[in-house]
C-alpha cells in the first residue's frame, strides 16, 4: 500500500524512481480509509538522506501511511537548508496537542557527550515523556535507542575503545515476539557508533526484553515488555553506500577510523559495497507497523 508524503519532498523523486508506491495529498483524500499517522523526529545531520531511508522502509505497509517530520527547536541543524525545514518539518509545539499511531526517533552524532550535555536533551526528554500518552508505539534508532534506554529505563551508555563500524552477524534471542516474525536465525545489520549499552543490564531489567544480539556488536534489538518502545542500536535503515561515505568523511577529517568490518568486498574501500541487510530491514519495519502500530492503535484517538 502507498506511503503519503508531500510531492515536493526531495525523497519523493528518489523513491518513485525505485518503484516505491507513493501517494500525494490530492490522491490520499479520495481514499475512505483510516491512515496510520507516523511522526519522525529526525536528529541526523543529513536529514534528506535519512528521510529517504526511512520512507523507503515505511512504504511496505498494509495501510496508507501519513508521515510528518519533526525537528528540534532548541538546536539549529547546520547540514540542511532552513527552507527545507520550514517546508517539511514541524516543531514539538506544533504537534504536542496531537496523537500519533507511531513515532521514530533517529540517531544523532552526539553519542560521545553525556546525555545531559546535548543541546536539545531537555526538549528530547519532553518529547519522550509526551510520547507515553500520545503515541501508540515508538521505534528508537542508534543514539535514539541509547537515549530511550537511559531516559525510560535508567540504562546508561559507555564509550568503546574505538569506533564500531561495519556489517555484523546478529542472532535471535527471543523468537516468540511478533517483531521478529519471519526473521532468519542469523542475519546481518550495519553499525556505526562510538558507544554501546551494557547487554547484561537490558537482560536484567524487569521491563525489558533483549530480542537480538551480536557477538561482536553487542545488544542490537530490545523491546519494552509493554511493547511500547522498540530500541535498535544499529542502523538497519542504512542504504548500501552510507558506511562507505561515513568512512571517507572520517578519513578526510584525519580520524583514525578502521575500515568498516565485513562491508567492502575483499576489504577494499574502492570496491562497490553490497546491501546484504535490505530484506530484514523491510521485514522489521513491516512487523513494527503491523503488530505494534496498526494492530494496537485505536481507530479514533480520544
Automatic annotation (TrEMBL):
Pathway: Amino-acid biosynthesis; L-methionine biosynthesis via de novo pathway; O-acetyl-L-homoserine from L-homoserine: step 1/1. InterPro entries: Class_I_gatase-like, HST_MetA, MetA_family. The active site is at residues 142, 235, 237. Coiled coil: none annotated. GO terms for cellular component: cytoplasm. Pfam families: HTS. Transmembrane segments: none annotated. It catalyses: L-homoserine + acetyl-CoA = O-acetyl-L-homoserine + CoA. Keywords: Acyltransferase, Amino-acid biosynthesis, Cytoplasm, Methionine biosynthesis, Transferase. The record marks 192 as: Important for substrate specificity. Belongs to the MetA family. Transfers an acetyl group from acetyl-CoA to L-homoserine, forming acetyl-L-homoserine. This is Homoserine O-acetyltransferase.
Amino acid at each position: 500500500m502507498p506511503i503519503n508524503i508531500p510531492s515536493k519532498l526531495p525523497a519523493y523523486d528518489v523513491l518513485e524512481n525505485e518503484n516505491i508506491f507513493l501517494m500525494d495529498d490530492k490522491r490520499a483524500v479520495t481514499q475512505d480509509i483510516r491512515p496510520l499517522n507516523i511522526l519522525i523526529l529526525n536528529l541526523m545531520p543529513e536529514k534528506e538522506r535519512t528521510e529517504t531511508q526511512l520512507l523507503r522502509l515505511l512504504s511496505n505497509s498494509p495501510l496508507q501511511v501519513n508521515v510528518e517530520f519533526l525537528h528540534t527547536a532548541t538546536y539549529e541543524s547546520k547540514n540542511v537548508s532552513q527552507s527545507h525545514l520550514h517546508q517539511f518539518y514541524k516543531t514539538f509545539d506544533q504537534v504536542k496537542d496531537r496523537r500519533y499511531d507511531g513515532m521514530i526517533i533517529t540517531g544523532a552524532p552526539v553519542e560521545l557527550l553525556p546525555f545531559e550535555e546535548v543541546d536539545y536533551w531537555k526538549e528530547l526528554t519532553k518529547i519522550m515523556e509526551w510520547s507515553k500518552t500520545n503515541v501508540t508505539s515508538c521505534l528508537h534508532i542508534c543514539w535514539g535507542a541509547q537515549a530511550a534506554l537511559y531516559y525510560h529505563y535508567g540504562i546508561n551508555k559507555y564509550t568503546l575503545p574505538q569506533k564500531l563500524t561495519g556489517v555484523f552477524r546478529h542472532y535471535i534471542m527471543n523468537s516468540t515476539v511478533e517483531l521478529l516474525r519471519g526473521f532468519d536465525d542469523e542475519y546481518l545489520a550495519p553499525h556505526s557508533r562510538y558507544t554501546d549499552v551494557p547487554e547484561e543490564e537490558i537482560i536484567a531489567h524487569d521491563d525489558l526484553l533483549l530480542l537480538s544480539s551480536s557477538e561482536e556488536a553487542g545488544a542490537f534489538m530490545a523491546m519494552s515488555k509493554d511493547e511500547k518502545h522498540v530500541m535498535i542500536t544499529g542502523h538497519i535503515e542504512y542504504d548500501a553506500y552510507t558506511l562507505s561515505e561515513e568512512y571517507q568523511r572520517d578519513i578526510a577529517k584525519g580520524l583514525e577510523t578502521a575500515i568498516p568490518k565485513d562491508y567492502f568486498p575483499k576489504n577494499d574501500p574502492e570496491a562497490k559495497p553490497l546491501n546484504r541487510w535490505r530484506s530484514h530491514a523491510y521485514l522489521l519495519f513491516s512487523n513494527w507497523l503491523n503488530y505494534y502500530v496498526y494492530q494496537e492503535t485505536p481507530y479514533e484517538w480520544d
